[in-house]
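Task card 7
Instruction: Convert sequence to structure tokens.
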Amino acid sequence: MSGPSPQPRGPAVPGGLAGHLDGFVRAVREAGVPVGISQAVDAAEVLTVVDLLDREQLRHGLAAVLLRRAAQREAYDVLFDLWWPLTDRPAHAPDGQDEPEDADGEDGGDPDGPLPVGDPGALAEAMRAELLRLLLDGDEEALRRFARLAVDRLGAGTPTASGQSFFSYRVLRALSPDTLVAQLLAGMLGSADRGGLAEQVARSTAKERIAAFRTAVEAEVRRRTAAEKGRDKVARNAVRPLADQVDFLRAQQADLAELRRTVAPLARRLAAKLSARRRLGRAGRLDFRRTVRASLATGGMPLVTHHRPRAVHKPELVVLCDVSGSVAGFSHFTLMLTQALREHFSGVRAFAFVDTTDEVSRFFAPGADVVDAIARIGREAGVVGFDGHSDYGNSLEVFAERWPAAVGPKTSLLVLGDGRTNYRHPGLPTLADLVHRSRTAHWLNPEPRRLWGSGDSAADQYRQVIPMVEVRTAAQLADFVTTL
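Output:
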């Protein structure tokens, strides 16, 4: 007699909701967040234990199982607002009537009275006054609902053949929320004394609430755009790349802070990979006298060998970095990497070049600010000797001539640059000699591999004499360190 049929494993989630969750998880994965099968199963479990009508509870529940780093939260929130928007309700009531109340009787952030009709200026002023009231109240849900109304009333542009378009800048320009700070402070502080801790707290709170409103407006614009053009298309354009996927050559100022936090652990791993190891393994050289003495106990047979202790030391590293304008973003990152590596290598010497070479180790003293050091390199280092255009051949020759002892059998050589020579002599014999004299040598190139050898790029020639790796993002650098 057959036993009971096996019960299916995993949470019981309705088919339509399961498919919707699957699309959301795929979008999160495509945004660069590593989401495995077990995390997807956990996300389905979340749907069975949270209140699906409470968006914030659902948002935080899914984030708890899908995310691993705080830096992933921004991309996650954008995608969550696209896949789990606010419950649809009438965009606006007929002219001259109040917005319909929610089921609980509250207005949900809509103006208390009818909005002016036919006068854009009066409409903006009425909604601006309502925005001030909501900012003072601090009700986040009401503020988000008001953002929906504001986009509907103030964000519409001129209709086109493809449909109605909405723009966040039209809403923010009409309401000018940043100019409400003084009125918010007056409402929050009342008659309290100004200039103390209370004002600092109130000012910080006001800025946070205004930022939350701006975010809500942008989320609503994305939601409406997704309804017309599709979530997938909007998601590809709306989600900013994660810090470890930002192209170094296109990194913005806002990305540099997160890149600095990414560099430190990569530097530690790179230092460990490049650490000098004795060819004889963990043990040092054979101690002949101790081995012979020990063999007397076994009739002269050296059954047990003794070795001298191996001297443990930090490795030496020479970094040769292109700081020309074409790789400015990459050089900024690589010099940050150089600063981080100084903590792990006994002798880190940094050299920068454009059309000639200069040692820049002096700018990276312990505790030096990386941004300031990079600025000083541009002002004080002798990296331009002729016209300021990249000249790899001359730079390599100047380096080999002025610092002949910089690279030796204990040195790891790291060359950082795109290999674009402006059709000048590439200096291949000099580079080959440096690689031969070094213990290890690697070239990190910030350009896509498909562009190596195109135009004035000598990357295909350089890679014949030195291992060259495409490193356009921190994620690719992590892969390089892992496989080194």
